[in-house]
Design a protein that fits this description.
Elements (H helix, E strand, L loop, with lengths): L2 H13 L3 H7 L2 H4 L4 H13 L7 H8 L14 H8 L2 H9 L16 H7 L3 H8 L8 H4 L2 H4 L3 H7 L7 H7 L2
Length: 174
C-alpha cells in the first residue's frame, strides 16, 4: 500500500463528496497505515466537506482513533469546524465522544465552537453548544458573541434560561 497515494485518494474523494467511495477508502484496516497527522487532516476535511447530517465518515475516523481535539493549521478543532459549518449531527457525535466545547482557538480573539456557530448564524447548533458551554470559565469571551449575532434580543434570550423553553425554540428556530 502506497500510503501517500492512499492519503491523496482519500483527500480527493472527500473533497468531491464521493461519499460511498470515501466510506470504502476509510476502512479501518487501511486507515491504520496513516499517521496521526494525516488522520486528523482527513477528519478536518470530512467535516468541511460533509453534507449536513452525514456522520458516517466521521464515525470511521473516530473508530480509527483520530484525535478529536486536534487543531488544524488555523487552530480550529473538529468541533469548531462542525459548529462553523452547521453540522448538528456531527456536533452531537463529537460532544458524545468528549470533544471540549470550551477550547479556544489560537487567534487573538480566542473563539470557541459557540462563537463560530453564532458567527455563522447556525441556531440549532448554537442551542446545542450552549448546553455544554462553561459560561463561568469563559465569561470574558461571551461579550464577543454580540459582534457576531445580528439580533441582540435573540442572543440574550439564548444566553439565558429562556433558550431552553420549547416555545422560544419553536418561535425562533426556522
Amino acid at each position: 500500500l502506497d500510503v501517500k497515494a492512499f492519503y491523496e485518494l482519500c483527500e480527493q474523494v472527500i473533497k468531491y463528496r464521493h461519499i460511498t467511495l470515501a466510506e470504502q477508502c476509510l476502512q479501518v484496516r487501511y486507515l491504520k497505515a496513516l499517521d496521526a497527522k494525516e488522520l486528523n487532516e482527513l477528519l478536518a476535511l470530512a467535516i468541511r466537506y460533509s453534507e449536513s447530517g452525514r456522520v458516517s465518515l466521521i464515525e470511521k475516523l473516530i473508530s480509527a482513533g483520530v484525535d478529536i481535539e486536534f487543531a488544524d493549521e488555523n487552530g480550529l478543532t473538529a468541533l469548531m469546524l462542525a459548529a462553523q459549518n452547521g453540522h448538528f449531527a456531527i456536533l452531537e457525535r463529537l460532544l458524545s465522544c468528549g470533544a471540549n466545547p470550551n477550547k479556544l482557538d489560537r487567534y487573538e480573539h480566542k473563539y470557541t465552537a459557540l462563537h463560530l456557530s453564532v458567527g455563522s448564524s447556525h441556531l440549532p447548533e448554537t442551542l446545542l453548544l450552549t448546553m455544554h458551554f462553561d459560561f463561568y470559565q469563559l465569561w470574558p469571551t461571551v461579550g464577543q458573541l454580540y459582534q457576531f449575532w445580528p439580533n441582540e434580543q435573540m442572543l440574550m434570550q439564548l444566553l439565558t434560561s429562556e433558550a431552553s423553553e420549547t416555545s422560544w425554540v419553536d418561535a425562533n428556530v426556522t
